[in-house]
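Key idea: predict the complex, not the pieces.
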Amino acid sequence: MSHQTTEASPPAAQPDLAVEFLDRRTPVDRARQALHKYPALSPGIVIILAIIVFGLLNPRFFYANNLSLVSQQVAVVGTLAIAQTLVILTAGIDLSVGAIMVLASMVMAQLASHNGVPAPIALLLGLVVALAAGALNGILVTRLKLPPFIVTLGTLSIFIALTLLYSNSASVTGQDIPGLITGTGNTFKIGGVNFTYGVVMMLLLYIVMAFILNSTAWGRHVYTVGDDKEAARLSGIRVNRVLMSVYVAAGAIIAVGSWIQIGRADAASPNAGTDINLDTITAVVIGGTSLFGGRGNIWGSLLGALIVGVFRNGLALAGLDVLYQTLAVGVLIIVAVSVDQWIRKVRK
Amino acid sequence: MTTANILGPESPAQTRQPVLQARNLVKTYGRVVGLDGVSLELYPGEVLAIIGDNGAGKSTLVKCLTGAEVPDQGEILLDGQTVRFRRPQDAHEAGIETVYQSLAVSPALDVASNLYLGRERRKAGILGSVFRMMDKKGMRKEAEEGLRNLGISTLQDVTVPVENLSGGQRQAVAVARAAAFGSKVVVLDEPTAALGVRESNQVLQLVRTLRERGIPVILISHNMPHVFEVADRIHIQRLGKCAGTITPQSHTMTEAVAIMTGARKVDEKGA
Ligand SMILES: Nc1ncnc2c1ncn2[C@@H]1O[C@H](COP(=O)(O)OP(=O)(O)OP(=O)(O)O)[C@@H](O)[C@H]1O
Ligand SMILES: [Mg+2]
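Result:
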């Protein structure tokens, strides 16, 4: 991102005038300033601590098949979190991410299994549906000027209903779906750990999106629109165009998530993604992206998704009930948002 | 400009073609009338000040002139041609740059990024054309040079996020951006409001430099000494209307303030 133009150099290597500008700082201020500048720092620390603690609690945490399981659990949420990050960076929120994912996955699976559509075309049509869903969100946000929260709360219900109508509330099992579509769940080995192609696709999406957000004008405009919409407009940025493109891009990313989800579940189920949406928001927020927009880092969202996955997995391995996992995730969200609020006090 | 030289400095401005002209602009916000039929001409190479009380419609006027607002009625002409600015970008493309009262800077971005905001430069070659990579280094370097050339010394480091700057420094960023990109007209809405004495003088000097370069300037200010020091003509805005246009030679500061507050009319001069 542009306000981190110094990121190419190591954080502490050169004296930073921005930092020196605020003199008489305590170590606490210093920490806050660092977190402000590098939003992915705090989730990075949390994930390292979590891995150490859970590894000590139960050595099975580090077993190859467990690490493989964690990575697979993270793949879908991690992918959808990219879309969520884009929307949240513009000071919006997308409650319909999970619903779009399920809708597109049903389109992909059902076209290929029941309607005999060739797998690549079925994937493409699933993508088209997700793009259209994103575009609908974008149009409602930019043309009707409704808050994204309300828009996506409405489209969430609409997409769920459409999914159930279209699929007759029936799942499609893996055997009926062509191998290309379920292939995202296939694995390959690195150092004894099985990774799925879905995990690789997620990582590739992160790399591409990190490049776009950091190095292109569009990426900079996404941040600016979330930072100060009016300033963006007066600076000659087409705010509505940026917002529209964000929601459409989110649709495209979600379509990839649908594909990964089918591979991971080896099925397409219309009831698959009910709580996945909250998990994406959790991942983004824990990852240090501000719900107020304009500040954050895409890699933080990957760390956030990993933290959620590691907490769930580690607590389960430690023999705790599922309810404690949910409790822990809830606590994580509140801590993350408090940290964000505290960091934002750096601003004058 | 050539016409101006042929006619000589003595000739009344009115015989020249205005660079920017507004005719009977009307702008309402619900029931509030921001502008009530305001006309304005900006001639080549002049500094036109706009003064008026709070809420007199100064900012609304320049917003309409620069595409930030679309007037309900009225006409805007650029070099005698009717133009319709639907967004700030349209005005930018016509060479009109503005420092808005709200400054329109992005707090989280650094100084260099703000200077190039909305017109980021891309790298040469396929990195720029295909991969759309911004030329961050180039922009940073040129931002530094640009600030030095403009004599803006208050911004030392262009990699500092604007949110870490003082109010005056932020204003300097906005002024620098307008001065650097304005090729036809530069509009400054209270550019010295948050500035110290030295920095204010730098901005006034900048206004003169722009005039020397042949770029006309519209300057809004509440600071009468500044206005009378640098303006060629003064447009007085009162209650959404133009109460008259004077020059620093034709009227004194006290008279200008009297017109501004409605205590007297322009034509009462010499009566
Ligand atoms: N966005 C808006 N919505 C509603 N009313 C507005 C808006 N912008 C301006 N106005 C109204 O239009 C009138 C003119 O405002 P404007 O900002 O042009 O005044 P100004 O001369 O620039 O004042 P100041 O010296 O305080 O900057 C005021 O009555 C103001 O309340
Ligand atoms: Mg104003």
